[in-house]
Amino acid sequence: MSPTAPSASPPSFLALSPLLLFIALFCGVGFTLTALGEANAFYQLPAAVALVPALALALWLAHRRGAPAFDRLLAGMGDKDVQLMLLIFLLSGAFTAVSRATGGVEAVVALGLSVIPAALILPGIFLLATAIALALGTSMGTIAAVAPIALGLADAASLDKALVLGAVLSGATCGDNLSLISDTAIAAARSQGTTVRAKFLENLKFAVPAALGTLVLLAFAGDAQPVPPADPPSAWLALPYVAVLGLAVLGVNVLAVLAIGVLLAGAFGLGFADYGVLGFTADVHKGFLSVTDTVLVSLFVAGLGALIRADGGFAWFVARIEALARGRKGPRVGQLGIAGLVAGSDALLANNTVAILLSGPIAKDIAAEHGVSPARAASLLDIFACVTQSLLPWGAQILLAASLGGISPLDLAGSLHYCWLLGGLTLAWVLFERRRSGAEDPAQVGEVLLQ
């Protein structure tokens, strides 16, 4: 969701008010209704509806400054990365709907349960998603390929959907963050003048403990029920999934992968199940409709991000981080500044790659001033951009996973064990790493955290 127009407005905190309004409305209503005992509290005010007042406020602020408000809004919504993401949403919905209707999901689940014990389903899903994302270099493609399988396993073993999708998204984040071909890894390394390999080796210090901790947590999470033996559908119906995973690992464009998956699922349904052409077209349409809310939220957030950036909200945030980091000295302060810079940028822009590209030059200056190595700076940029993106209730990754599972993004956020562990362990490492000579006073670090 990357805004494209450069900001010509001076830094302005007021420009952030539309995003704050959306958060207040969406989360405020949800938490209030939860406290009142309302069932499905966060579904009562859809995120797309909560974004409308925020967009209206952002348009008014831009118009008040004499800026071409609607042009900026449409430029953000029409960004090519946004359009690519929307196509992924639509094709993912179609693939899931057709696969379920033809019995493909049941066939894959039967094969999976014959290999993976019920007690190890969650760790197995995490490892599968990690491996796919490492090969793909993208979390979105991984979620689209793995989530339908995981949801089928969740239904068969009576597991909570949020836990299962949390394992998928956690694995997708882990693999994407470590992949040597990920766009975020390449952008982070280049912006800091280091190699992707050096950034990868630095990342391992944080990612390996977080991944091991996630495996342990997932092994004891949930209460998978033994699955009674049943007569599974034809194993041939699982081949579209195998093809999707195989093509994804080979590096085929994610849109082509999903389109081929939809066609194969329909073709195998015609050949091995009681399925017709009209049923296929109806299910494709049903799949498109299932992600309508996700498409609307993504479009609105893209437009909102473009307006906030153009009105100076992003510039205000960056200036604030720079002022905090430059007011004190030392590697810890510098690393905290870089982490806060890219995390906040991603929260404003809802696009981790764009957040890294925009934060990179500033992070490089902060790293040089505070004695942070280029590899560590690149690692922090990638880690906190990916973690923030995965946890954002309005981020593309969590929206895709939640829409495929039919659950609230906020329900899913609490199940992203790897993301929470990676962020927490990285901060702990930064704060408690052995100080070098001439390093900052710990009291200064505390002042940064309190501000």
Mean pLDDT: 80
Shape: globular
First-residue to last-residue Cα separation: 28 Å
- Which class best fits the helix and strand makeup? mainly alpha
Strand content: under 5%
Number of helical segments?
A: 22
Share of residues in helices: over 70%
| Total beta strand runs | 0
- Low-confidence segments, ≥5 residues, pLDDT <50? 1-7, 436-451
Q: Please outline the major beta sheet.
A: none
Order of helices and strands: HHHHHHHHHHHHHHHHHHHHHH
Which value, in Å, is the CA radius of gyration? Answer: 22 Å
List the helices and strands and how they pair.
Blueprint: H1 17-35, H2 47-64, H3 69-77, H4 80-102, H5 104-115, H6 121-136, H7 139-156, H8 161-178, H9 183-191, H10 196-220, H11 239-249, H12 254-272, H13 277-290, H14 292-310, H15 313-326, H16 331-349, H17 352-370, H18 374-391, H19 396-405, H20 409-413, H21 417-432, H22 442-450
Primary descriptors:
single chain, 451 residues, mainly alpha, 22 helices, 75% helix, disordered N terminus, disordered C terminus
Could you walk me through the main structural features you see in this protein, from its secondary elements to its overall organization?
There is one protein chain. This protein is mainly α and 451 residues long. It has a domain at 81-292. It has helices at residues 17-35, 47-64, 69-77, 80-102, 104-115, 121-136, 139-156, 161-178, 183-191, 196-220, 239-249, 254-272, 277-290, 292-310, 313-326, 331-349, 352-370, 374-391, 396-405, 409-413, 417-432, 442-450. Mean pLDDT is 80; it is low at 1-7 and 436-451.
